[in-house]
């Protein structure tokens, strides 16, 4: 099992230390008899190099395609203000059978409309995109902080079913399906379940998906979305307003502390890719 990551090399490894990397090839360049690999894992990126005089290893590197999963051993060296790896051995764990353009880990505006169909049909590949990874990590951090707040305030999390016989709104916004001969719907909201549970637990909440079969041309309309919903017994409107304000204040302050580096990364990516999309050709 892998227990040593690229972030450990960048933050802790000493110069000339022997290391092993299990990760993926984000990109490859060859210049002046040197091959440069950008190696990535879930924690970061590091450059690895090999010289032409390495013979068989160099020829092996020439055949490696971006997105291949590899096992690299080498020596830590200085590279400008960071570190790089002088490759000693490399093993291809998983080869690439086909390539897509733009490459998933390349720098392009993943949310540009010209890429919509590509991203939706190849979404399992584009999860590797740096910006999309950062958004998913941020969502994870945010949800955990929201859960911390509700636990601190004595709430019980309720897990309501996705398939339900209880439509909350009118039939025009329902997704229906046949469930073993019975008509059921994809949930529009967990309100009914929370309103039942509040009589037992007094403070309940849910973080769950909802579905609305509303046709819309708006850019922000979603047929499937996740939302936070809560119910409190014996609270008036003013108390609920104060509670929501306190929760938002807590979440905003906490996320800035616990995910500051991630938020700065997202802002940096937005600045870098705010203009026209950059399409990098495949090798």
What report would you give on this structure?
By secondary structure, this protein is α+β, with helices and mostly antiparallel strands. The chain folds into 2 domains: 6-94, Beta Barrel (OB fold (Dihydrolipoamide Acetyltransferase, E2P)), CATH 2.40.50.140; 113-272, Bira Bifunctional Protein, Domain 2 (BirA Bifunctional Protein, domain 2, 2-Layer Sandwich). The chain contains 8 helices and 11 strands. It has helices spanning 6-12, 56-63, 116-121, 123-126, 130-152, 191-201, 237-258, 260-272, and strands spanning 18-31, 34-41, 44-51, 69-79, 82-94, 156-157, 163-164, 176-179, 182-186, 203-211, 224-232. The strands form 3 sheets. Strands 1-2-3-5-4 form a 5-stranded mixed β-barrel. The chain is elongated, with a radius of gyration of 25 Å. Residues 275-283 have low confidence and may be disordered.
**CATH secondary-structure class of the largest domain:** Alpha Beta
What kind of oligomer do you see?
single chain
Note the run of SSEs as H and E: HEEEHEEHHHEEEEHEEHH
Instruction: Supply the CATH architecture of the largest domain.
Output: 2-Layer Sandwich
- The number of domains is 2
């Amino acid at each position: 099992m892998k227990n040593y990551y690229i972030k450990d090399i960048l933050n802790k490894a000493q110069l000339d230390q022997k290391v092993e990397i299990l990760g993926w090839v984000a990109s490859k360049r060859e210049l002046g008899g040197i091959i440069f690999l950008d190696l990535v894992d879930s924690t970061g990126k590091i450059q690895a190099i090999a010289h032409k005089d390495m013979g068989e290893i160099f020829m092996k590197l020439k055949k490696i395609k971006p997105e291949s999963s590899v096992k690299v051993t080498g020596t830590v060296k200085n590279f400008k203000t960071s570190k790089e790896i002088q490759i000693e051995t490399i093993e291809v764990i998983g080869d690439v059978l086909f390539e897509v353009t733009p490459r998933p880990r390349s720098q392009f505006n993943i949310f540009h409309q010209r890429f919509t169909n590509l991203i939706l049909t190849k979404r399992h590949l584009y999860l590797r995109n740096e910006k999309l990874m950062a958004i998913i990590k941020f969502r994870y951090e945010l949800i955990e902080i929201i859960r911390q707040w509700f636990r601190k305030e004595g709430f019980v999390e309720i897990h309501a079913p996705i398939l339900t016989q209880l439509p909350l709104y009118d039939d025009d916004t329902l997704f229906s399906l046949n469930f073993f001969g019975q008509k059921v719907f994809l949930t529009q909201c967990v309100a009914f379940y929370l309103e039942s549970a509040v009589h037992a637990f007094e403070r309940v909440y849910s973080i769950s998906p909802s579905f609305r079969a509303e046709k819309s041309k708006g850019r922000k309309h979603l047929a499937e979305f996740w939302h936070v919903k809560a119910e409190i017994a014996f609270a008036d409107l003013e108390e609920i307003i104060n509670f929501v304000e306190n929760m938002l204040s807590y979440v905003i302050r906490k996320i800035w502390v616990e995910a500051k580096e991630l938020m700065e990364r997202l802002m940096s990516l937005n600045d870098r890719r705010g203009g026209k999309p950059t399409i990098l050709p495949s090798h």
